[in-house]
Write a structure and sequence with these properties.
disordered C terminus, globular, translocase, disordered N terminus, two-stranded antiparallel sheet, transmembrane, NADH_UbQ_OxRdtase_su1/FPO, ubiquinone, mainly alpha
Length: 456
């Protein structure tokens, strides 16, 4: 029986719960995200303070554990200001559009094995709200809807800097979702399904982080860019955009944007755990020596532990790496991540096709190594010819050279000169002996300038 049939058989376990049990599981998913967000905010402030040799929050609750709850209450009590030039309807709906899709992806994430049912109020059920044959496509679609809230927030504010922040977020998310989708496709090829429960079942022998390390690394980079976290927090860069797309928001609407960011952090973390880190499965040393590690309520413990570890990685990156420039961000997405992910996807598809033809593993390694060497050789030859062409072009006069001085204000806006163009000389201060007499106060015109009341 192949993996697709197993996935279809497992999906028959879903959709049989009574309505009240579905409601309980939905409330649990919502509560899990909210509690994880509260813990994540406190953990971020504590960990960053520890990295910077500070104390961090220590006033609200024991060891400051209720600081994030106090921040939420404070934001709700702040004055809710609506910008006069804003599009009122879109301005109010934008935070809702950004926050609601962030909660929807958790519905198809398995917290435990589908075949190991648990008992809730005497009713046997799975540790997952529901599952779909195209569950991963559902997650990608829901995650893509959240970008509309950010773009609409920047546009509806009626201000320049929020609009720039919204456009940055749109370009950034589109760029990084392409590489993310290619990383997902490698997992689909190995698991034979897009169902989240089937993908976890396919990692019974070996986690995909071992089989597909390049896909895991690509996804780790793209998930940081997808949620606009440092060092890729371009849409919220305070230095050049004042505050980003949420500049004109306050009170509960600003809190919803903040909530959406942290919920998206949790969402991409649970997706990473499901696709690459074995999902709810116990780590190798535990699962090898304890047969009951993946039964009962224990799978939820392993799942939550992996999610917390990835959230700590988010905090670690924020406290360690400085913000990159926007051109570096887009160059990484389009010139590095997308080509590498596409090439890696082709290699994975080739390996799977050879395995389906019963080709020996050694032969597959030789074929893949030969393909990689050919690609590297072609890249080296292309770089060599490109450098030679650039060197020959450097010996020739460039366009714009020798055309005289360059006027940076010719088009009405200051622009930098092109290669070969020269700026007009900057006026310098004259030597002290050649400076003109600077007169301050009334002068005696009758004396023909010989006697003045001014000073040098």
């Amino acid at each position: 029986m192949n993996t697709a049939l197993l996935a279809a058989e497992d999906l028959s376990l879903f959709g049989r719960d009574p309505w009240w049990l579905v409601l309980i599981k939905a409330v649990f998913c919502f509560a899990f995200l909210m509690v994880t967000v509260l813990v994540s905010i406190v953990m971020e402030r504590k960990v960053v303070a520890w990295m910077q040799l500070r104390i961090g929050p220590n006033r609200h609750g024991p060891w400051g554990l209720l600081q994030s709850l106090a921040d939420g209450v404070k934001l709700m009590l702040k004055e809710d200001v609506v910008v006069k030039r804003a599009d009122k309807v879109v301005y109010v709906l934008a935070p809702i559009v950004a926050a609601i899709p962030a909660f929807m992806a958790i519905a198809v994430i398995p917290f435990g094995p589908a075949g190991n049912e648990i008992s809730i109020l005497g009713q046997r059920t799975t540790m997952q709200l529901t599952d779909l044959p195209i569950a991963m496509l559902y997650i990608l679609a829901v995650a893509s809807v959240g970008i509309y809230g950010i773009v609409l927030a920047g546009w509806s504010s009626g201000s320049t800097y929020p609009l720039l922040g919204g456009l940055r977020a749109c370009a950034q998310m589109i760029s990084y979702e392409i590489a993310m989708g290619a990383a997902f496709a490698s997992v689909f090829l190995y698991s034979g399904s897009m169902s989240t429960s089937a993908i976890v079942d396919a990692q019974a022998d070996r986690w995909f982080v071992v089989l597909l390390p390049v896909s895991f690394l690509i996804y780790m980079v793209t998930m940081v860019g997808e949620v606009n976290r440092a060092p890729f927090d371009m849409p919220e860069s305070e230095g050049d955009l004042v505050g980003g797309f949420n500049t004109e928001y306050s009170s509960i609407k600003f809190a919803m944007f903040m909530l959406a960011e942290y919920v998206n952090m949790v969402t991409v973390s649970v997706v990473s755990v499901t696709l690459f880190l074995g999902g709810w499965r116990a780590p190798y040393p535990v699962s090898a020596f304890w047969e009951g590690a993946n039964h009962g309520w224990w799978p939820m413990l392993w799942f939550v532990g992996k999610v917390v570890a990835l959230l700590f990685l988010f905090v670690w990156l924020r406290g360690t790496l400085p913000r990159v420039r926007y051109d570096q961000l887009m160059k990484l997405g389009w010139k590095v991540l997308i080509p590498v992910s596409v090439v890696w996807l082709m290699l994975v598809a080739t390996v799977r096709a050879l395995r389906n033809e019963n080709v020996e593993f050694q032969s597959i390694v030789l074929y893949v190594a030969g393909a990689v060497l050919v690609v590297l050789l072609l890249s080296f030859v292309a770089d060599m010819f490109r450098d030679r062409k650039a060197k020959e072009a450097g010996d020739e006069p460039r366009e714009g050279a020798g055309t005289g001085e360059f006027d940076p204000m010719a088009g009405g806006f200051p622009v930098p000169p092109l290669p070969g163009q020269t700026l007009p000389p900057v006026p310098r201060r004259r030597p002290r002996g050649e400076r003109e007499l600077i007169v301050s106060g009334p002068t005696d015109t009758a004396s023909d300038g010989k006697e003045t009341d001014g000073v040098y």
